[in-house]
Amino acid sequence: MDLTTKMTIHASSQTLYEALINPDRISNFWFNSSEQWAEGKTVHVTYPEYAAAFDIDIVQLQSNRLIEFEWPAGGNGNRVVIEFIEMTDVTRVDITELGLPDDAARLMDQKEGWVYMLSCLKAYIEHGVTDLKGHLSK
Q: What is the pTM of this model?
């Protein structure tokens, strides 16, 4: 099953794309990345706030337009596609996670996670907020 989450952010697609692939920026709103994301690389990411660490495979990058990765790495994970659609004064970020099980609790969990990540990205880009990540309570 595929799950899509969308949010508009007052920024250019270039700003948002760079925030995700640059390890110095992504750590301000999501997880820590071992290196700059590049197509074909396996990148180690950590989420200390949730005691999580894993590798992701960067499948495809289209500058300022698309990021596609698989997590966890190794060919058995879920595919995630992040698209940047520029609109008047905003960019819409569409995230689709492919291949999720048809399980209501898991889908709710994933949807909650993507909404939270996009909210943290929006707060970081629009207002410079860097202390939201890791504060989602279950």
A: 0.95
